[in-house]
Design goal:
Number of helices: 9
Number of strands: 7
Structural class: alpha/beta
Helix content: 40-55%
Shape: globular
Largest sheet: 7 strands, mixed
Length: 223
């Protein structure tokens, strides 16, 4: 699934995210796995994200988008760069998404901007965000700015990042992590941002219940 906070129509941010996802698809198909690419376009959800961020009232459209992410095998997270960081819309979406949705999820981070000055944003800002969400971020991150769109270097990075994402998915690393360490950080929470069908289908929402994680989430730890 591509999660794009692009603001243009058409959006170069979405274009970049989809290019990486298609490379992952090619890798998986070359290895005998049929797959498809889904898009979560955040621009039409801007009002819903803003309302949810101050009220925790999750609209049906926003709930559906979060459900798409939760039931994914991997995610390409793409944002334009504003004022040396990812956009407020991009951050707002992850702020209202329940924390365990991205647990052990393979992720590629990608960004677009108007200047090479923003080259480190995917690694200094986006990578740390998904580390906090306990996702598994691919080694290759991508920043596209200015003349990058006409370069062979960008296409090479898209291919490398996509193949890394495909390899993570093919290896089953997400389920392996959940099986190996899940009981160490499981906790319970109300799935207010999830459709029941998506919650039931998703391995991204294990029923975690350790005292440490309840305490970390603002609850009261047990004995």
């Amino acid at each position: 699934t591509v999660v794009s906070a692009g603001v243009g129509d058409p959006s170069t941010t979405t274009k970049l995210g989809e290019a990486v996802a298609l490379e992952a698809t090619r890798y998986l198909r070359d290895n005998g796995v049929e797959t498809s690419v889904r898009l979560v376009d955040l621009r039409p959800l801007a009002r819903d994200v803003a309302v949810a961020s101050v009220s925790r009232q999750i609209s049906p459209a926003l709930k559906k988008a979060i459900g798409v992410v939760a039931t994914s095998d991997g995610v390409v997270a793409a944002s334009p760069v504003f004022k040396a960081s990812y956009s407020g819309l991009f951050k707002g979406f992850w702020d209202v998404t329940e924390p365990d949705v991205m647990l052990a999820m393979p992720v590629v981070v990608a960004a677009t901007g108007g200047s090479d000055r923003h080259a480190l944003v995917p690694d200094t800002d986006m990578r740390s965000l998904f580390a906090f969400l306990r996702a598994i971020v691919a080694p290759t991150s991508i920043m596209a700015a200015g003349g990058d769109w006409a370069s062979t270097g960008l296409a090479d990075r898209e291919k490398r990042a996509g193949r890394e994402l495909g390899a993570f998915i093919l290896s089953g690393v997400r389920q392996a992590v959940l099986d190996a360490a899940g009981k160490g950080y499981r906790r319970s929470f109300a799935t207010a941002t999830m459709d029941e069908s998506a919650s039931a289908a998703s391995t991204a929402l294990p029923d975690f219940d350790s005292s440490l994680m309840r305490l970390a989430a603002g609850g009261i730890g047990g004995d």
